[in-house]
Amino acid sequence: MHTDRDTLFRHLWDNYCEVTPSAQDIHRLLDDTQGGDIVNDHIALRTFNLEKVNLDKLAAHFLALGYHEGGDYHFDAKKLYAKHYQHPDPTAPKVFISELLVDQCSGSLQSIVESLVSQMDPTAVTRDDFLYSGRHWDVDHATYQTLLEESEYAAWVAAWGYRANHFTVSINHLSRFKTVAEINQALKDNGYRVNSSGGEVKGSPEELLEQSSTMADRADVRFKDQTVAIPSCFYEFARRYAKPDGELYSGFVAASADKIFESTDSRT
Ligand code: OOG
Ligand code: NI
């Protein structure tokens, strides 16, 4: 298990940037105009709810670093369940981990996912590098397409495996950009696509969280039979508001998260 949080997040960031060149460019765009450091609000990870690799197995890496469980979230239509984790150190990025409820999916999806996960070394999930170790199975492009028809999320995890699905800039810590709308405008001015599912700004001050995200980059995946460019990872922006007690809200908003999941869906 990791003993050093900064090292883990540095590895996660480097691994994420390998398939998300726009994140580095946007990071630079924000840096250039601020002259300061970018603070990460949160990262997100995805998995299947099979015993070998479920949400709790991923969460264990963060619990070992002193994180504790925050809220939990249900996404019935997408057959997903998620929990968030936060650290007593307020500068530590929060972590949003979701899992596909495989048992609620079709028999064919269940057997595909089970056969992928069965290829995995059972000790891999506890290794220090697991959270940025990518795919532990061989999968052909046709199988990816079959999964895509039923669950874009399942197809994404099958193709990419274990890695940060996105990093999220804390708008609260930026100096020039103050609102999600301003960031969205700057992104569009620079040629990026903003996820517009449910509106470009997700959430509201009343919900204590406003968010937006880019549509995922595309990067090459080496499938068993061929190499194909598919949606990889995206960049997100979050602005948090204070609760009545004066502390910034630290949870997530399920209705917004539901739409942010679609940032890897090139069909929308
Ligand atoms: C997570 C989507 C939800 C948020 O901030 O609400 C999310 C994902 O796409 O894996 O990131
Ligand atoms: Ni997010």
UniProtKB/TrEMBL annotation:
SMART domains: DUF1338 (SM01150). Keywords: Dioxygenase, Iron, Oxidoreductase. Belongs to the 2-oxoadipate dioxygenase/decarboxylase family. Its cofactor is Fe(2+). InterPro entries: HGLS. Pfam families: HGLS. It is an enzyme of class 1 (oxidoreductase). This is 2-oxoadipate dioxygenase/decarboxylase. CDD domains: VOC_like. GO terms for molecular function: dioxygenase activity. It comes from the Bacteria. It comes from Marinobacter algicola DG893. The keyword Iron applies. Its EC number is 1.13.11.93.
